[in-house]
Amino acid sequence: MSLSKLKVVLVTGRSIEQGVSKERGKISDEYFQSVATCHMDPDDMKELGVKEGANVRVTTEFGSVVVKAVKSKRTPHKGTVFIPYGPWASIVVNPTTSSVGMPYFKGIPAEVEVAPKEEPILSLRELLRRHFGRG
Amino acid sequence: MSTSVVQSVTCPICGSFCDDLELTIEDGRITKVKNACAMGEAKFLYAPDLKHRWLKPMIRKDEELVEASLEEAVKKAAEVLAEASYPILYGWSSTCCEAIRVGIELAEEVGGVIDNTATVCHGPSLQAVQDVGLPICTLGQVRHRADVIVYWACNPWEAHPRHIERYTYFPDGRFQSSMWRRYLTRWGMLAQRKRILRALSTHPYIKAILPPLARYELSPELFVKGRKLIVIDVRRTRVAEAADYFIQVKPGEDYELLQALRALVRGIELEVDEVAGVPVKLLEEVVDVMISCDFGVIFFGLGLTMSRGKVRNVDLAIKLTEDLNDRSKWLIAPMRGHFNVTGANAVFTWQTGYPFAVDFSRGYPYYNPGETSVVDILLRGDSDAALVVASDPVAHFPKKAVEHLVKNPLVVIDPSKSATSLMADVVIPSAFVGIEAEGTAYRMDFVPLPLKKVVEPPAGLLSDEEILRMILHEVRKIKGVA
């Protein structure tokens, strides 16, 4: 039986797809497709019962965001998930700066679950309107 | 149709600054890019595309961005900054040093805080350098001399795609030779092993004994001669697959691993089997390689600055380099990611004495990361206006910080449409530095390089420097000092 929620460590960072698509336009579909994603270990996906391309909700103490589950190309990294830098990742990162000015963009405790049907992945403008009321 | 080829173009993407690009220009448009990585090629070919850009200045009226004249937008931006009591001026890393210099003048004039993207990048590294110094060298030295290269908590294959090829493992240097052949041999052997394992796994009895076989790594002893590549990361990245030694550290435990390596380098025996999820036996093997080399270099990335430990991780990485220098020759360098972020730090330092997070509200430069760094100011809710130049903080700052940023008047100077410019009150589009405007920028090893103008910007678009000078002039007029 698959788990309903999986406890993981969230790491955000650069990916080459994000690097290329941001130059193709931050409002382009390529950018959306490359950064509104969560790269997971195949074993974790199996445990959670999610298939490649399904929507997952990533929740941390600081927020919750729905992104697309993608199978990592290089494994194993069980218990660690990766979301590329971008507006979707920024919703869930830890803003605490520990008095050095730098928030925690990596190593954030998080939970991953299958996203309910009524919660699709928000487009850039929808995300900005939902969280900041403008865009 | 007019066609021309421009050679030796510097790439305005990451801190590697590849300066061997060749561009083909047809009728004022870049149509072909040679030698660049995927990101560099995408920037030259697609970034100047008009569909992702603002072509006219925009001002927000009744919650909608509407077109305005440049004079109108500059006047509005100047009013916002001049009227604010504690504005922040943020970004700067994707523009040239000349524009940054004007930005600092503007920050002083309006008594605001000026900060660059290092604050959410290598800011902790800069603080660590102030604590313990930085034994660094130019990338040319690494290319010609380094025989052990360590990539710690970074993924150059995706973030600095030509770094390995131009400066570290793959180039032919004067005293070191390229490791391309070794990489291809290893890659071929791994692919072959995968094929054999896949074929064997169809047999039910053999399948049961496969897991230990599948875990077996190719021994580095097979490849004794030449440069060695050591990769330390929480994930098995592509560069980790190319490495001679890959150490997979548990997330957030780099500090423990660094301490363990320091102890081993000093000849102290560890009385545990494992540190940060890594067998001590592997660490001993790696330390042997590190102390027996002629010239080693550690490149470290944001995995150290953004996770638990932050400044202290970098402190310790530099201290490890110091310890290694008792046994051999070692250097350390941060993998600066964002185009001219090194230049932003350099210009900030020579103008104000500090590399980032500089507060002019007292009338003189004041620096205290944690207090004057832009994310902290936003989290406290202290600022009352913002100017963002060549950056996209709405997409990359934590949600709570962005909430305050967009609550107050926001002026954006940027060539392209981005999450930040969509939220702005005033948008002034500019020309792309390094494509449509000239300038100077710093490579990650503090080597300044000229950026070329290869095509004309769309009609009416000025460079960041020109726009900032206009705003500065307007601010001085408002304050009665022009």
Q: What would you call the shape of chain A?
A: globular
CATH topology of the largest domain in chain B: Rossmann fold
What number of domains of chain A? 1
Strand order of the largest sheet of chain B: 5-4-19-18-17-6-7-15-16
End-to-end distance of chain A = 42 Å
What is the CATH architecture annotation of chain A? Answer: Beta Barrel
Order of helices and strands of chain A: EHHEHEEEHEH
Number of separate strands of chain B: 21
Helix content of chain B: 25-40%
If interface size is counted as residues with C-beta under 8 Å from the partner's C-beta, which chains form the largest one?
A: A-B, 50 and 68 residues
Major sheet size, sense and barrel closure of chain A? 6 strands, mixed
Uncertain runs of chain A are none
- Give the neighbour order of strands across the main sheet of chain A: 2-4-3-6-1-5
The CATH class of the largest domain in chain B is Alpha Beta
Helix content range of chain A: 25-40%
Strand content of chain B: 15-25%
Total strand segments of chain A = 6
Return the structural class of chain B. alpha/beta
What do you see in this structure?
The complex is a heterodimer of chains A (135) and B (482). Chain A is an alpha/beta fold. Helix content of chain A is 26%, strand content 30%. Chain A has one domain (6-132): Barwin-like endoglucanases (Beta Barrel). Chain A has helices at residues 16-23, 29-35, 42-48, 87-90, 124-132, and strands at 6-13, 37-40, 55-60, 63-71, 80-84, 106-114. In chain A, helix 1 (16-23) packs antiparallel against helix 2 (29-35). The longest helix of chain A has 9 residues, at 124-132. The radius of gyration of chain A is 14 Å and the shape is globular. Chain B has two domains: 6-121 and 339-479, 3-Layer(aba) Sandwich (Rossmann fold); 129-179 and 226-334, Dimethylsulfoxide Reductase, domain 2 (3-Layer(aba) Sandwich), CATH 3.40.228. In chain B, strands 5-4-19-18-17-6-7-15-16 form a nine-stranded mixed beta sheet. In chain B, strand 2 (21-26) and strand 3 (29-34) form a beta hairpin. In chain B, helix 3 packs across helix 16 (341-352), helix 4 crosses helix 15 and helix 17 packs across helix 19. Chain B is globular and about 80 Å long. The mean pLDDT of chain B is 94. Classes of the chains: A alpha/beta (135), B alpha/beta (482).
